[in-house]
Amino acid sequence: MGSLLEPGMLVRHPDKPDWGLGQVQSNIGGRATVNFEHAGKQVIMIEHVDLMPVFTPPER
């Protein structure tokens, strides 16, 4: 999943539900920078953490 992360995608950290919803800022060299609602900007080693994508329905 990690290689599919793109800037703007919404994700959740599976082990840190209290961090809330996160938005991917970048995904370079196996490191994803994600800005979480309640934890701020975090750098995630995507080989160790499978961030869960959050799919929102399209706006009407």
Q: In DSSP terms, counting alpha (H) and pi (I) runs of 4 or more, how many helices?
A: 0
Radius of gyration: 11 Å
Helix percent band: under 10%
Number of domains: 1
Return the string of H and E elements. EEEEE
If you had to describe this structure to a student in words, what would you say it looks like?
- By secondary structure, the protein is mainly β.
- It has one domain.
- 0% of the residues lie in helices and 40% in strands.
- The protein has strands at 10-12, 22-28, 31-36, 40-45, 52-53.
- A 5-stranded antiparallel β-sheet has the order 4-3-2-1-5, with no helix packed on it.
- A hairpin with a 2-residue loop joins strand 2 and strand 3.
- The chain starts with 9 loop residues before the first strand and ends in a 7-residue tail after the last strand.
What features would you highlight for this structure?
5 strands, 5-stranded antiparallel sheet, 60 residues, single chain, mainly beta, globular
Brief sketch in words of this structure:
By secondary structure, this protein is mainly β. It has strands at residues 10-12, 22-28, 31-36, 40-45, 52-53.
Outline the secondary-structure elements:
Layout: E1 10-12, E2 22-28, E3 31-36, E4 40-45, E5 52-53
Antiparallel strand pairs: 1-2, 1-5, 2-3, 3-4
